[in-house]
Specification:
By secondary structure, the protein is α/β, with parallel strands linked by helices. Helices cover 30% and strands 16% of the residues. The longest helix has 12 residues.
C-alpha cells in the first residue's frame, strides 16, 4: 500500500474529477548498511537521513529503504521510517515486502487467509526490487555511525546526535534565526 498527502487544491480536483494528476517520482534507494548501535531506533534513522539529505532532499523522489539495518527493523519501526519520508520532502517511502512483512500481515483482519494468503505472498515477492535494480539515486549511510538523535529547531532537519552540540542560533542565517518576544 502506498499513501501520500495532498493539498486542498488537489482535494478539489479529486472531488470534481475523481482523478489526481501527478508526475511519476524518481526513485532513490536509501541504504543503511551495517548494524545499528545500542539505543538507536527507527526515529534516529529517519532523523539522520533528513539531517543528511535535508527537509527538501526528497522532493521529486520516492524513497526505497534498504540495507541490513532496515531489514532488521520490526514492522512498526519500518512504518515509522516510511511515515516520516514526507518530512524529508519525499512523495512517499517504502520497504520491499519480505518475511517481516508477511509475518506482520498474516492473520490480520482483511488480510487474505489460507491459500489466498500464499498466493498474495507470491505476488508481493514479485513486486520487490530485484538485486541489481537501477535507481535514479542511491544514498548510503553507515548504520553503525548513527547515534540517538534529538531535534532542537522547528523542523526535523534541525537535529543533532546526542554526542553533538546544538548549534548557536546566532550562527544560522538571519532569516532562520529564532526570534523571542517578551
Amino acid at each position: 500500500a502506498i499513501a501520500f498527502g495532498i493539498g486542498t487544491s488537489q482535494v478539489r480536483d479529486v472531488l470534481a474529477t475523481q482523478c489526481l494528476a501527478m508526475a511519476k517520482p524518481k526513485l532513490r534507494q536509501v541504504r543503511i548498511d551495517n548494524a545499528l548501535g545500542k539505543g538507536v531506533y527507527a526515529k534516529d534513522i529517519i532523523l539522520t537521513i533528513i539531517q543528511k539529505l535535508g527537509v527538501k532532499g526528497g522532493v521529486g523522489y520516492a524513497y526505497e529503504y534498504a540495507g541490513p539495518a532496515i531489514e532488521r527493523l520490526t514492522m512498526e519501526e519500518r512504518l515509522t521510517v516510511c511515515n516520516m519520508s514526507i518530512e524529508g520532502g519525499a512523495r512517499f517511502g517504502y520497504v520491499n515486502p519480505d518475511q517481516t512483512t508477511f509475518d506482520y500481515v498474516r492473520g490480520r483482519p482483511y488480510a487474505p487467509q489460507g491459500e489466498a494468503f500464499d498466493r498474495a505472498v507470491t505476488w508481493w515477492k514479485s513486486i520487490a526490487s530485484e538485486p541489481g535494480a537501477s535507481y535514479d539515486d542511491v544514498a548510503r549511510l553507515d548504520g553503525a555511525a548513527i547515534e540517538p538523535v534529538v531535534t532542537w529547531g522547528i523542523n526535523p532537519e534541525q537535529s543533532v546526535g546526542v554526542s553533538q552540540r546544538i548549534p548557536n542560533p546566532e550562527s544560522a542565517p538571519e532569516a532562520e534565526r529564532p526570534t523571542y518576544r517578551e
